[in-house]
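Listing S7. Sequence submitted for prediction.
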Amino acid sequence: MKYRLFGNSGLRVSPLCLGTMTFGENWGWGASAETSRVIYDLYLESGGNFIDTANVYTEGSSEKILADLIKPERDYIVLATKYTLSNTTHNPNKSGNHRKNLVQSVEASLKRLKTGYIDLLWLHAWDFTTLVEEVMRSLDDLVRAGKVLYIGVSDTPAWIISRANTMAELRGWTSFIGNQLEYNLTERTPERDLLPMSEALNIGVVAWSPLGAGILTGKYLNKGNQGSDGDRMDGSTSYRFNERNHQIAKAVVEEAAKMKVSPAQLSLAWILQQGVIPIVGARKIEQIKDNLKSIEVDIPGEVLQRLDEVSAIELGFPHDFVLRSGAQKMIYGDMVHQIEGIGNPNLKS
C-alpha cells in the first residue's frame, strides 16, 4: 500500500482502513477473538496501519480485542476510536458530545485499549445540543493533555464542521483533520456539501458502509433475500432496498464480471478513485482477503461512466440552479465561455 497524508496533518495512513465493529460476538453476530486476530494479521501483512473502532462497538469488546492485537505494533498502528453514542438507558450524561461524556468515554476507551493515547478520536455523531465552543475546547484539552493526538468528526452537517474548524483556527485550538461519513455508490449525497467542504478545508475523508450494507456485493439481487439480523439488514436498514439500489448493484455485478474482479472490489475501488478511504470490515476471513485486493483494481473509463450514470444524484438547490446555463449567463454575462473553470458544455439548459 502507498500511504497518504491524512487531511491537514503529517499523519500517514494506508488507503484502506480496517473497521472493527465486527470484532466480538456480543451483538449476536460478528467475529470471534480468534477470527478477529486472523483478519487483523492479514490487514497488517498487506501494509495496512489504520484501525477504526468505537467505544460502543460490541459493548466494548471490539476495543478489548484490539488491545491485545495492537500491543506488539502500537507505534505502527494509527488507532482511531469514537465517543458520543450511548449503550445505557439510565444515565442521561453517558451520551452526547459534551465534556463530561467525552472525558468519561475517553478514559474508559484508554483502559479497554490498554494504551496511553488515542491517535485519532472521532466525534461519532452531532448531538444538536452541545455548543460548538464546548466541543472544540474540550477536544483541544484532551490533545494538550496527550491523551488524544488528532481529532475527527463523523455524521455531522457540513456547516457545523466548517464553523467548528474556523473557530478552532481563530482561537488556536485543535481542528478536525478527518471527516467520517457514509459514502458508496448507493449513497452519494455527501457530494452535495460534505465532500466539497472536506476538499476545500483539506479534511481527510473516510467512508463507512462502503458496500452499502452488502447491497453492492450483489448478494441481495434476489429480491426475496433481504438479509438477516446477522447481516444487519433488518427493518432499521430496510430503506436501502429499492429499485434504484437494485439497478446500481446489478450494474456493479455486471461490470465486475467483465473485469474479472468481485463486486466488492469494484465498489471499493470506485471509492478509492474518489480520493476517499473506505473502511473495510469483515466477519469472515475470505471477506477481508477479497476486500484487500481492491487496491489493485484499475477501473476503465467506460466502467466509471456507467457507474456514475446509474448512481447519479441531483445535487439540489443551490448547486443545480447555479449550474444551469441561464443562471451562468446571469452570473458571468457574455464572458461565460471565456473564463477558465466556467462555461461547462455539459451545463443544464
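Caption to Listing S7: primary sequence and predicted C-alpha cells for the chain studied. The CA atoms of residues 184 and 211 lie 6 Å apart. The beta strands are 4-5, 12-13, 17-19, 50-52, 78-83, 118-123, 148-154, 176-182, 204-208, 277-281.
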